[in-house]
Design goal:
Layout: H1 2-49, H2 55-65, H3 71-83, H4 89-100, H5 108-117, H6 126-173
Amino acid sequence: MNIMKIAGSIMVIASSTAIGFYFSGQMRQRITDLRELRKLIGLLRGDIRYAATPLPEAISMLARRDNGSFRKFLDYVSERLYELSGQTFALIWRSGVESMLSCTSLSRKDKLQLAQLADNLGYLDKDMQVNTLDLYIAQLDEEIADLSKTVREKAYLYNTLGIMAGIFITIVMI
């Protein structure tokens, strides 16, 4: 019976510790995803501003260049734009954000801001599109800076809370 209690205690502590490490890893992955998104939006901005590339073609080129977690999203948007189904760019972009970005660590707020980006792209002139992308890049930079400041403390907190919760549950069970 004592061996069962010890094994159960070890399993509870290990699983709660794993949950703490999972959440701290998700936070670090979110920063990585935001940095990758910032890079892609910067490339999109450059293609529109300097090469005067039309939006569907610029997104298609981004999809070919990207090997990260946003590739499916960019492929989806690119394919849907070339189908010429009569849907607006904003609708295609929003449906891509909702359906293709579930594999990323972006928060609901990040996805909402990304979806809102499409409201001002696709139908404005080149300068307004570039200004919209500049504003979004500034928002991303601010979010990345805020997360980078707090990631160490929060990751330590998540890890410690996971371990302590496991110990507490074990004590209560025994």
